[in-house]
UniProtKB/TrEMBL annotation:
<feature type="domain" description="Chitobiase/beta-hexosaminidases N-terminal">
    <location>
        <begin position="64"/>
        <end position="225"/>
    </location>
</feature>
<dbReference type="InterPro" id="IPR015883">
    <property type="entry name" value="Glyco_hydro_20_cat"/>
</dbReference>
<dbReference type="Pfam" id="PF00728">
    <property type="entry name" value="Glyco_hydro_20"/>
</dbReference>
<dbReference type="InterPro" id="IPR004866">
    <property type="entry name" value="CHB/HEX_N_dom"/>
</dbReference>
<dbReference type="InterPro" id="IPR012291">
    <property type="entry name" value="CBM2_carb-bd_dom_sf"/>
</dbReference>
<feature type="compositionally biased region" description="Low complexity">
    <location>
        <begin position="1142"/>
        <end position="1157"/>
    </location>
</feature>
<dbReference type="Pfam" id="PF03173">
    <property type="entry name" value="CHB_HEX"/>
</dbReference>
<dbReference type="InterPro" id="IPR029018">
    <property type="entry name" value="Hex-like_dom2"/>
</dbReference>
<dbReference type="InterPro" id="IPR017853">
    <property type="entry name" value="GH"/>
</dbReference>
<dbReference type="InterPro" id="IPR025705">
    <property type="entry name" value="Beta_hexosaminidase_sua/sub"/>
</dbReference>
<comment type="similarity">
    <text>Belongs to the glycosyl hydrolase 20 family.</text>
</comment>
<protein>
    <recommendedName>
        <fullName>beta-N-acetylhexosaminidase</fullName>
        <ecNumber>3.2.1.52</ecNumber>
    </recommendedName>
</protein>
<feature type="region of interest" description="Disordered">
    <location>
        <begin position="1142"/>
        <end position="1164"/>
    </location>
</feature>
<keyword id="KW-0378">Hydrolase</keyword>
<dbReference type="InterPro" id="IPR008965">
    <property type="entry name" value="CBM2/CBM3_carb-bd_dom_sf"/>
</dbReference>
Length: 1164
């Protein structure tokens, strides 16, 4: 076959032929070398062009058999970049990716942060696509080219991004394979909702910013007292006042009564008593049904036990439920009195009273909490009320659809901890989860963005890869909440005393609805132009930069367009009708608001009306409030912020502040470059703290140093106070404390995301520290990880004090739903939600004591110490109740909370003169979390069984067991935490295991890392410098010497005690002979210790006193030993100094710091 005939066979169309560049022969003289080059070039083109055409079958096969692995290499210390290496491997039996048109799309949190336009490697190319998408494809100019993957063959490509990536979840699952005009297919190996295909590069597995070892957690632990049982408050959220008989008894010890109190019953067993309930005649049947439902949910309580009565009679538990008119209680308050039996009655009495049935519901939840896991309630008096009116949670179900049964389970959890409002985001850029398609609206296109990941064959039109239509939940769903679904949710929430607030992001970007509206317009344009225009949300948009965290800038709704108003009204009418059918009051609607609102004044429709940005916001707020009438309008802070003033809109007759609630989330320092500080302001903020020189009359403490330059305006994180003082009703939802997409700890495996401006470590301790009425004191940490002195912010920015506390009407915790791909990840944050509920219900006594804007409070040492002590006491109370009761309640309900992670170290007891082996101390940041361990014999060896580190002895109730290891090396172990047992003598309900950690019994895990100076003899370590030991540099030879020294010290101590006892006994004999007494030396020594503890000056007593006589004799013995020890120390230090000087040992070799064994022997 001729070359021409082959070419005509290979190049069937002009597009393929055009790939070859023909050079006239007169310009390219033929030589043997050039002929060979030409044949190679043609051969290469033939090879590239002969690959098969991409078909749906080839896409399907590749998506099923391609194994994708992502390796993340972080860089936290130097530079602000990180790498992601993507490895592609063929696990099938046929060649894949050999066709030219395939594409792999995926998304990451760092949407637009590639350090260069594209990256190429191994014939592959990676670059940005639209929105948050990245795309991998063949690099058409590569030499050698990428020719696909044969079975078991792999290839890699690496990209470099700006910023940091510190969490596995910064990469999204569900990578997608597609080709032009073909349907996309999810790559099977990337579907794992827990990102099992994403790994941390080995170079980062030992740095403090990527992984947390048990020892790291021990070092960073706050520390707490394990009370071995419930905290004093017993209930979470903690009641305002709670008094038990034990507390009354303790009070009586301080002020004893004239007659001893009679013995009293302390608990009532609900499962063994008839429960007789008398309801006030004003109580509704709805509450009666609720009361019965809640009591029957207590284990052991049966329908036959629960009866309604008119008067107490017969043995059992008599419960009186009544409505009162107590002016000291809010609608949330209640009073609960549980009394035991008495001599004149054979039944227990419980009285529950409140001003409203809402308060009664809160009281019922307290009874259930008191019953805990053993169904026994204590004799107790409780007066309780909420400090925050609206206690809210926000879930965005547009990112990942959550089926109705799981939302109902979450509502049950919220009710347990007295939350009363759930904001559900039904509409955002990602999806519209509602469908109000009917004969009036005719809008079936909305469902495309709720039920489908991709709306067609064009992948950039798809939603981000974390998006799902509930396929990862155990309850399947279409991804759309039907009218019946929402009605059921509204009713269910209402029965739980929770108001469900629907949210659709009308004020800002709503890309899903906007794109769907254009599909609707195209369908109806030729049929009914008026109907087509009604909801057509497309408009002439101004040029807009995407705010941080946004994938698109083409979804913003025109605030002044009639179509936007029509759509908003239709959405409101839809929800109004559902609440009406459900028989539930429609009290609030959330219209959203985002960073795009700063562009509102640039829309042509608003300019045509003469509106700037502030007036445009006023216009749409007025339209929404007019439609809502008496229904409260809720918005995000961006919906009321005037870009010209940096704070809330001026009061206007167009907006009724009484019916408007604003949610504030930006309540912390972000990135310094966003503050527009002058060099003078930066210098003042960042300068080092100079020690205060009290002897210098011109010096002042750092907290009193003033900034003399120009102040900036309102601090960005202070807008909430400024707006509240101005009259806006506000809800505090600080991202820096209540956004649970932030990590619990800095660990690559934590379900969390790194946002464009950073992240916060939000553990239970940080939640505890939040002060809603004193936020300036909480401004010490920025999202970048930088730390600041809050009082210096008060010098640079205006930091308004909250004057109108009544306008802080609520607090809200939220969860970034891209993380929530299944029910486990939804419930993972349960412990943080419990702590947030506590912060919403109660103002801690430690709050508002120190103020960043008032230096006098910061200088008050007594005030600071008191704040620390109160805060720690409250924290210990909370976490003990959480560990010893709440975790058991969650386990019984099947809630998969985050099992607290392991912190461990080896207790270095050589400081106390104790001989090895030494104990491994292992626990978590909550008490009552069991720890298991087993010997680790190498990867893949699971032959050793797990054992409990400690167990409870059924006979004594004492903890027994433990792990003791040789010093300094004692092998390797695997350790893990588990969920706690409900009963300490039995296994946990549904045992769950925490993460497994490898723990080496080696010097790196000892604490404290110190060898006492007397044990350093002969080791060539410094003698006169305590706390100078570097465990990591101690050699095996030196450890052996230290062990020898421990043995010697123990022997010396035993010998000293024997000699001391003998000498003091002789001294006592002499004293008794001189003074004709008969004293016992051991009794005298005990009396000396007691007198010293009481502050008695024994040296002032006469020598005729036995205490003084023996004390002085003992003092001489100790002083003699101290002088001998001091002489030894001086000699050892001299030997240490000799170790530092290299010297000739006869063979010309230097000392090299080796221990002087001869010197050590002489010193002994």
């Amino acid at each position: 076959m001729s070359l021409c005939s082959r070419r005509s066979h290979v190049y069937p169309n002009k597009a393929t032929i055009s790939q070859i560049r023909f050079v006239p022969m007169m310009m390219w003289p033929l030589t043997p070398a050039r002929v060979l080059m030409g044949l190679v070039a043609v051969s290469t083109v033939i090879q590239q062009s002969s690959s098969q055409t991409t078909t749906q079958d080839t896409v399907n096969y590749a998506a099923a058999n391609l194994e994708v692995t992502a390796i993340v290499r972080t860089n936290h210390i130097i530079g602000q970049q990180f790498q992601v290496q993507l490895q592609l491997k063929n696990r099938g039996t046929n060649r894949i990716l050999d066709d030219p048109n395939w594409r792999i799309y995926f998304t990451m949190r760092q949407g637009s942060s590639l350090t260069q336009r594209e990256f190429t490697e191994n014939g592959l190319r990676i670059n940005r696509s639209k929105g948050c998408f990245f795309v991998i494809s063949k690099n058409p100019g590569a030499n050698p080219p990428f020719n696909g993957l044969m079975p078991n063959e792999n290839s890699t490509i690496t990209m470099v991004l700006r910023g940091l990536s510190v969490f596995r979840y910064d990469i999204d699952n569900n990578f997608v394979m597609t080709a032009r005009n073909l349907y996309p297919r999810t790559i099977n190996s990337t579907t794992d909702k827990n990102l099992g295909f994403v790994f941390l590069d080995p170079v980062n597995r030992t740095d403090d910013y990527s992984t947390r070892t048990p020892y790291d957690r021990f070092i960073g632990s706050q520390g707490y007292a394990d009370l071995r049982g419930l905290g004093e408050s017993m209930v979470l959220p903690r009641p305002k006042t709670l008094v038990t008989p034990e507390m009354e008894a303790m009070a009586s010890m301080i002020a004893p009564p004239r007659m001893p109190p009679p013995a009293r019953q302390t608990v009532v067993d609900l499962s063994e008593n008839q429960i007789k309930v008398q309801f006030d005649t004003s109580i509704s049947n709805v509450f009666k049904a609720y009361f019965k439902e809640q009591f029957l949910s207590i284990d052991g309580v049966t329908p036959s036990q629960l009866t309604e009565v008119n008067t107490p009679a017969g043995p059992g538990l008599y419960v009186s439920v009544e409505l009162t008119a107590d002016p000291t209680m809010t609608a949330d308050g209640y009073r609960l009195v549980i009394n035991g039996t008495a001599p004149n009655r054979n039944y227990n009495i419980t009285r529950l009273s409140a001003n409203t049935e809402t308060g009664l519901c809160n009281g019922v939840q307290t009874i259930k909490s008191l019953a805990g896991v053993f169904n026994v309630i204590p004799i107790v008096n409780i007066d309780d009320d909420a400090d925050t009116k609206r206690r809210m949670v926000k879930l965005d179900v547009t990112k990942n659809f959550i089926p109705v049964p799981h939302l109902q389970k979450f509502l049950d959890f919220m009710h347990m901890y007295k939350y009363n409002e759930l904001v559900l985001v039904f509409g955002s850029d990602d999806a519209m989860r509602i469908s109000f398609n009917n004969e009036i609206n005719d809008f079936p296109e909305l469902e495309l963005f709720g039920s489908n990941y991709c709306n067609g064959k064009n992948i950039p039109k798809c939603n981000p890869n974390y998006y799902s239509g509930a396929t990862d939940f155990s309850t399947a769903s279409s991804g759309i909440y039907t009218t019946e679904d929402i009605k059921n949710l509204v009713e269910y929430a209402y029965r739980k005393n929770i108001n469900l607030v629907p949210r659709v992001n009308i004020i800002g970007s709503l890309r899903s609805a906007k794109k769907a509206s254009h599909l609707r317009f195209k369908r109806l344009e030729s049929i009914d132009k008026t109907s087509a225009d009604r909801f057509h949300l497309m408009s002439n948009e101004p040029s807009m930069a995407s705010p941080p965290g946004s994938c698109y800038n083409d979804g913003v709704l025109d605030p002044c367009s009639p179509s936007t108003i029509n759509f908003a009204f239709a959405v409101i009418d839809y929800f109004k009708s559902i609440y009406s059918v459900a028989g539930v009051p429609f009290t609030a609607f959330h219209a959203g608001g985002d960073g795009f609102t700063k562009f509102f004044g640039q829309f042509a429709s608003c300019q045509a009306m003469g509106y700037n940005q502030a007036a445009s916001l006023n216009y749409i707020l007025n339209q929404l409030q007019t439609k809502l009438s008496d229904v409260t309008l809720m918005v995000h802070e961006h919906a009321v912020l005037d870009i010209n003033t940096g704070t809330c809109l001026e009061k206007s007759t167009r907006v009724d502040l009484a019916k408007l609630i604003v949610e504030f989330t930006d309540m912390a320092p972000g990135l310094m470059e966003d503050w527009n500080l002058t060099s003078e302001q930066k210098q003042f903020l960042l300068r080092e703290v100079r020690p205060y020189n009290e002897s210098d009359p011109n010096d002042v403490p750092d907290v009193d140093r003033r900034f003399s330059g120009t102040k900036k305006g309102i601090a960005p994180w202070s807008k909430c106070y400024d707006c509240a003082n101005y009259g806006y009703k506000t809800v505090l939802s600080p991202d820096s404390f209540f956004d649970f997409s932030n990590p619990y700890e800095l660990d690559f495996n934590e379900p969390a995301t790194h946002k464009p401006d950073g992240f916060y470590i939000i553990d239970l301790g940080r939640l505890m520290d939040f002060e809603p009425y004193n936020i300036h004191i909480n401004m010490g940490t920025a999202s970048s990880g930088a730390t600041y002195l809050p009082y210096r912010f008060a010098e640079i920015f205006k930091t308004p004090t909250l004057m109108a506390r009544e306008n802080i009407v609520g607090m809200q915790a939220s969860l970034d739903m891209p993380l929530v791909r299944n029910e486990y990840l939804l419930e993972y944050n349960s412990l943080r939600f419990i702590m947030a509920a506590e912060k919403m219900w109660n103002r801690g006594e430690f709050e508002n004591l120190l103020k960043a804007e008032d230096s006098s409070t910061l200088k008050n040492m007594t005030l600071g110490q008191m704040r620390t002590a109160i805060r720690q006491s409250e924290y210990v109370d909370i976490i003990n109740t959480m560990g010893y009761k709440e975790l058991g309640r969650l386990d019984k309900l099947g809630i998969t909370y985050r099992i607290p992670k392991l912190e461990a170290h080896i207790d270095n007891r050589m400081l106390a003169g104790q001989k090895p082996p030494y104990p491994v101390i292992a626990k978590s940041d909550l008490p009552n979390i069991p720890v298991e361990y087993r010997r680790y014999n190498g990867a893949g060896d699971n032959s050793t069984a797990w054992s409990a580190l400690f167990r409870v002895d059924p006979a004594t109730g004492a903890r027994v067991g433990g792990l003791f290891v040789p010093f300094p090396y004692g092998g390797s172990y695997q350790m893990r935490t588990t969920n706690p047992p409900i009963d300490p003598f039995v296994q946990p309900v549904g045992p769950r295991k925490g993460e497994t950690y490898y723990f080496e019994a080696s010097p790196k895990n000892y604490a404290p890392k110190e060898i006492p100076p007397p044990l350093r003899e002969g080791t060539c370590m410094p003698i006169m410098e305590p706390w100078s030991t570097n465990f990591d540099t101690v050699t095996d030879d030196k450890w052996r010497i230290v062990l020898d020294n421990i043995d010697r010290r123990i022997t010396e101590d035993i010998e000293f005690r024997r000699t001391r006892q003998a000498n003091l006994t002789q001294s006592m004999i002499r004293f008794n002979a001189l003074n004709r007494r008969n004293e016992n030396v051991n009794n005298v020594l005990e009396n000396i210790m007691r007198q010293l503890q009481e502050g008695v000056n024994i040296t002032a007593l006469p020598m005729s006193n036995e205490l003084k006589y023996i004390y002085e004799a003992d003092k001489v013995l100790h002083e003699t030993r101290d002088r001998l020890q001091e002489a030894k120390m001086i000699r050892w230090e001299r030997e240490y100094q000799e170790c530092l000087v290299p010297r000739n040992r006869g063979n010309g070799a230097p000392n090299n710091g080796a221990p002087n064994r001869q010197g050590r022997a002489m010193a002994g």
